[in-house]
């Protein structure tokens, strides 16, 4: 289970880097839309996060369920925003920046909440 967890962790952290990088590229390009990179990375983040929790449960690790629940709620909010408005042109700036802020806050919570 340790190797599976390590692989999932690399995918999850790498996926977050690509997701935030996708937001950054859209911001620098001036388009401010939910690109296919953002669209797919949101799903990958959600799936790898759930699989990580499952792997940790399988190893009988102690989990902070408040942290897991908070991160899941934020991830579902980001996924909902991105999937519901992916085809919308033009995308309101508040929607783009809101999804970006939620995704970034999820990364901060993962690091800061011990």
Describe this structure in words.
The chain is mainly α. It has one domain. The protein is built from four helices and no strands. Helix 1 packs antiparallel against helix 4, helix 2 packs antiparallel against helix 3 and helix 3 runs antiparallel to helix 4. The longest helix is centred in the first third of the chain and has 28 residues. It is elongated and about 45 Å long. The relative contact order is 0.16.
List the defining traits of the structure above.
114 residues; elongated; mainly alpha; 4 helices
Brief rundown of the structure:
The protein is mainly alpha-helical and about 110 residues long. It has four helices and no strands.
Count of distinct strands: 0
Oligomer: single chain
Radius of gyration: 15 Å
Helix-strand pattern: HHHH
The coarse overall form would be elongated
**Regions with little confidence, pLDDT below 50 for 5+ residues:** none
Helix content: over 70%
Cα distance, first to last residue? 23 Å
**How many H/I helical runs?**
4
**What's the number of structural domains?**
1
């Amino acid at each position: 289970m340790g190797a599976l967890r390590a692989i999932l962790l690399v995918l999850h952290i790498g996926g977050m880097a690509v997701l935030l990088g996708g937001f950054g590229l859209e911001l620098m390009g001036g388009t401010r839309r939910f690109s296919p990179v953002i669209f797919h990375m949101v799903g990958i983040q959600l799936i790898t996060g759930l699989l990580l929790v499952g792997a940790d449960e399988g190893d009988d690790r102690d989990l902070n369920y408040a942290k897991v629940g908070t991160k899941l709620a934020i991830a579902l909010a980001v996924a909902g925003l991105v999937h519901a408005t992916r085809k919308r042109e033009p995308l309101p700036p508040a929607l783009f920046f809101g999804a970006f802020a939620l995704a970034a806050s999820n990364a901060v919570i993962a690091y800061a909440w011990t």
